[in-house]
Design a protein that fits this description.
- With about 220 residues, the chain is of the alpha+beta class.
- The protein has two domains: about 80 residues, Elongation Factor Tu (Ef-tu), domain 3 (Beta Barrel); about 80 residues, Elongation Factor Tu (Ef-tu), domain 3, CATH 2.40.30.20.
- It contains five helices and twelve strands.
- The strands form two sheets. It has a six-stranded antiparallel beta barrel. Strands 7-8-11-10-9-12 form a six-stranded antiparallel β-barrel.
- The mean pLDDT is about 90.
């Protein structure tokens, strides 16, 4: 579990394809000081396990599923990635609960300077935008951000100068991809309303009728 508050940007040293999956090596200045083999670390929004450590270099194994469902397979030496260690039980929750399980890959459609901020519009599949609400939370490349507007296939976010300077979102160009993870609360609510409650709990038609009548759903 993560919070979406990025600790630092790491430098990609290499992405080496293997018979199945790949091996990713990242240079980290601060995060590596406490990292040990077996730790879970968010790499631009994807939860990965440290499999090797050599000084300030951390290595992670990527499965075929990770390569298929995230943009990590596009990485090359010299690229920057967002790094965040897993949330400690006594840690501060400054962002929102982020699982590190990427829902989809989105694309930067536009970047507009608005005063001191940067408004970014991201294209995303409807199964992600359907879980977003204005003023709600979304993780973009692992960064906890607030949704501004949502349409069927896009949503927008506003980036303050600090976020643009200390995360990869400020480096993203038009057409580049980003990992997306919707708020986990929205996922469970959507699952419940879609009928998942029937198999899981036996359903409660009276409850649903009451919620509908009251205008909640």
């Amino acid at each position: 579990m993560f919070t979406g508050l990025i600790s630092e940007m790491g430098d990609v040293i290499s992405l080496m394809r293997k018979r199945s999956g790949a091996s990713l090596t990242v240079k980290a200045v601060t995060l590596q000081q406490d990292a040990v083999i077996g730790d879970s670390i968010s790499i631009s929004g994807a939860c990965l396990t440290v499999t090797n450590r050599r000084g300030d270099l951390l290595t992670f194994d990527l499965s075929e599923e990770t390569l298929r469902s995230t943009n990590l397979g596009e990485l090359k030496g010299g690229d920057k990635v967002n790094l965040e260690p897993s949330l400690r039980a006594d840690g501060k929750l400054g962002g929102h609960f982020v699982t590190g399980h990427v829902d989809a890959v989105g694309k930067v459609l536009s970047k507009t300077v608005v005063g001191d901020t940067l408004k970014i519009v991201i294209g995303a599949p409807s199964d992600v935008t359907g879980l977003l609400v204005g003023k709600g939370s979304v993780a973009v490349d692992g960064i906890s951000l607030t949704v501004v507007d949502v349409s069927e296939d896009t949503f927008s976010i506003v980036i303050i100068p600090h976020t643009a300077a200390v995360t990869t979102i400020g480096l993203k160009g038009i057409g580049e991809t980003v990992n997306l993870e919707a708020d986990i609360i929205g996922k469970y609510v959507a699952r419940f309303l879609a009928g998942g409650r029937t198999k899981a709990t036996g359903g409660d038609d009276k409850l649903m009728q009451s919620l509908t009548k009251a205008g909640y759903i």
